[in-house]
């Protein structure tokens, strides 16, 4: 763990004053939407429960409304009973409102919570039946999105494909006429009836006679056929020296004087003016500008899932359109905009939702665990042989 520390709750020292509240979805910082994201109206997130982690911890990590946590517990008190390794999945709308939550208890049992007004309705779901694989193939004749839709893939499945391939090929930008996509879906049946749209379990994309192949392992993650991760690592901190945290991530923070919400969507680090600021992950510079509250700012898109924001800078060292690498110096911290003292406001977003950059799980580039590698490689190669017959 890092040696960064909290400064004892002096929220307005080397931070933003409570009166300078940045709009959660201020268009100045918005990451441009690509040909897939423009159709997305719901955002899906998942979290794997760690040992001794409770539902309150998870809500805090992802900035979810504590009132919704209370509503879940009111719907069913068993919501708080979590075990390490269980998967929690939830949907939010563009404003961040929680729409539904699913806790996958076992491979056959899940707890589902659906929003109805200000309340949630609890439904236990026991899965019966069997799984069956199906392979779908398409050729790009217009763009990747239209090709995927032509074979009945859902937006969620299309996002999964684009994310899994992103660091090898960005299908929203690099796809060209004649490219071919083959996808294996794992679908659930009861009798002869298909009861879900299916989960993507393997992908083969052919572009300019080059093949990109990835498969999903038993741990739910995608890997290349040599066992390498499809993800890129991200760092926790955007500075390399130790400075106090002057204001923590808290989207439900209250003004101690007015007792009104004064949300804080990032972490303020009390850096002296001119402190080097580093990219926490590979990505593309999508926004550089000056904002009346945020001062000089920088926004980087770190793959298809994450983006990072750096506010109150004294100088930005990169330009829009530039590709940056993790650990590259991209700016100097400052005291611009509405600020009570020199500091860096660092913000991390997942699926455009603000999350706690100091605690939330970050992507890593670890290869598949060695004890799972042999089984994964055997299954993945068998799957690709099946897919090849459909090309």
Automatic annotation (TrEMBL):
This protein's pathway: Cell wall degradation; peptidoglycan degradation
GO molecular function: metal ion binding; metalloendopeptidase activity; peptidoglycan binding
Matches recorded under Pfam families: Csd3_N2, LysM_OapA, Peptidase_M23
Domain (LysM) ranges: 45-90
SUPFAM superfamilies in UniProt: Duplicated hybrid motif
InterPro entries reported for this sequence: Cell_wall_metabolism_enzyme (IPR050570), Csd3_N2 (IPR045834), Dup_hybrid_motif (IPR011055), LysM (IPR018392), LysM_Opacity-associatedA (IPR007340), M23ase_b-sheet_dom (IPR016047)
Assigned GO CC terms: cell envelope
Cofactor dependency: Zn(2+)
Subcellular location, record wording: Cell envelope
Protein name: LysM domain-containing protein
Gene Ontology biological-process annotations: proteolysis
Keywords: Hydrolase, Metal-binding, Metalloprotease, Protease, Zinc
């Amino acid at each position: 763990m890092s040696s960064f520390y909290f400064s004892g709750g002096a929220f307005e020292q080397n931070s933003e004053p409570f009166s300078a509240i940045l709009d959660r979805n201020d268009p100045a910082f918005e990451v441009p939407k690509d040909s897939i994201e423009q159709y997305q109206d719901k955002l899906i997130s998942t979290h794997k429960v760690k040992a001794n982690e409770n539902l309150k911890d998870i809500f805090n990590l992802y900035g979810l409304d504590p009132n919704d946590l209370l509503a879940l517990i009111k719907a069913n008190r068993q919501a708080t009973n979590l075990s390490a390794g269980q998967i929690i999945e939830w949907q939010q709308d563009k404003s961040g409102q929680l729409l539904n939550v699913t806790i996958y208890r076992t491979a056959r049992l899940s707890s589902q919570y659906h929003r109805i007004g200000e309340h949630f309705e609890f439904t236990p779901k026991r899965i019966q039946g069997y799984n069956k694989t199906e392979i779908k193939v398409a050729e790009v004749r217009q763009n990747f999105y239209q090709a995927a839709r032509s074979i009945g893939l859902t937006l969620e499945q299309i996002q999964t494909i684009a994310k899994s391939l992103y660091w090898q090929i960005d299908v929203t930008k690099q796809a060209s006429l004649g490219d071919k996509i083959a996808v294996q879906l794992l679908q659930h049946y009861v009798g002869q009836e298909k009861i879900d749209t299916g989960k993507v379990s393997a992908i083969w994309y052919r572009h300019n006679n080059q093949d990109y192949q990835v498969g999903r392992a038993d741990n739910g993650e995608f890997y290349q056929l040599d066992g390498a991760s499809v993800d890129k690592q991200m760092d926790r901190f955007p500075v390399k020296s130790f400075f106090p945290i002057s204001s923590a991530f808290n989207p439900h923070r209250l003004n101690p004087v007015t007792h009104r919400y004064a949300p804080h969507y990032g972490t303020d680090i009390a850096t002296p003016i001119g402190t080097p600021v580093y990219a926490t992950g590979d990505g593309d510079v999508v926004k550089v500008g000056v904002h009346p509250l945020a001062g000089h700012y920088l926004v980087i898109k770190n793959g298809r899932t994450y983006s990072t924001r750096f506010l109150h800078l004294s100088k930005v060292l990169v330009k829009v359109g530039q590709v940056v690498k993790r650990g590259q110096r991209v700016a100097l911290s400052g005291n611009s905009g509405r600020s009570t003292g020199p500091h860096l406001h660092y913000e991390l977003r997942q699926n455009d939702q603000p999350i706690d950059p100091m605690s939330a799980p970050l992507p890593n580039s670890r290869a598949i665990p060695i004890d799972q590698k042999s089984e994964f490689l055997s299954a993945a190669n068998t799957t690709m042989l099946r897919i090849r017959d459909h090309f």
